Task: inverse folding
């Protein structure tokens, strides 16, 4: 059972994006330039780019990105196993980032502590 009708969601986004483009055409033109800038050039093949895009989409929690790049990944021949592998990398990196920021939090907590005694 799927929690979201992804195809309907993509259509809804397209409609809302059209409204945004009506009010801010330069914004959408700039976004389209960014979105297409890596789709035709570079060292990565299209399927790999879409797998990276999915890992990033999960990291930034963008349902629209997930809907779009899942469809593109499938179009470029990605398998469920490859997508799961890319998502596993996203989980691993996000867990690592959480650990790093946990260390930063403890550093902030200890910021006003007196320095450790070097003789101890």
Result:
């Amino acid at each position: 059972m799927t929690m979201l009708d992804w195809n309907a969601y993509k259509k809804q986004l397209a409609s809302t994006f059209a409204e945004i483009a009506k009010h801010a055409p330069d914004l959408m033109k700039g976004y389209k330039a960014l979105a297409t800038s890596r789709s035709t050039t570079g060292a990565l093949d299209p399927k790999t780019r879409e797998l990276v895009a999915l890992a990033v989409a999960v990291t930034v929690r963008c349902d629209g990105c997930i809907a779009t790049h899942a469809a593109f990944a499938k179009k470029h021949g990605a398998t469920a196993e490859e997508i799961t592998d890319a998502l596993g990398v996203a989980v691993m990196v996000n867990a690592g980032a959480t650990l790093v920021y946990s260390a930063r939090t403890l550093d902030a907590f200890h910021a006003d502590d007196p320095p450790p005694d070097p003789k101890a």
